[in-house]
Amino acid sequence: MKTDALISIKGLQQVDDPEADEISLTTEGRYYEKNGSYYMVYDESEVTGFADTRTTVKARGDTVSVTRSGKYPSMMFFERGQRHMSLYQTDYGSLTISIHTRDISVDLGDEGGTIAVHYDIEVQHAYMGTNSLQIEVRAVH
Length: 141
Prior knowledge:
mainly beta, Lipocalin, 10-stranded antiparallel beta sheet, globular
């Protein structure tokens, strides 16, 4: 059953300097389980730079996908120790990105939980840095 949820997302990006760029977002969305996978769905806004875009986070076991549909379609797939490539849409065109997942932790249940991902990212085959993504979801009744 789909339920309203509060979704908190924190991203850290570290390139070659010791200072990390941090982005935090808390938004309302939907949370549900279907066929053994947990889903979080929310609409992006001008604040994130992805207006007119819907984001779906799907977690099953130790794999996570982040799919954006709408004006800025893209997909990122995270699986421990694996490298996955995809296209990332921007106002300036498509970019090829490569995600190499160093570590991943998924702890989700009917009332919510957390996802933590630590990964390296390359854009157009150039190393861009080491990132981490933390998502916390809480069902709101």
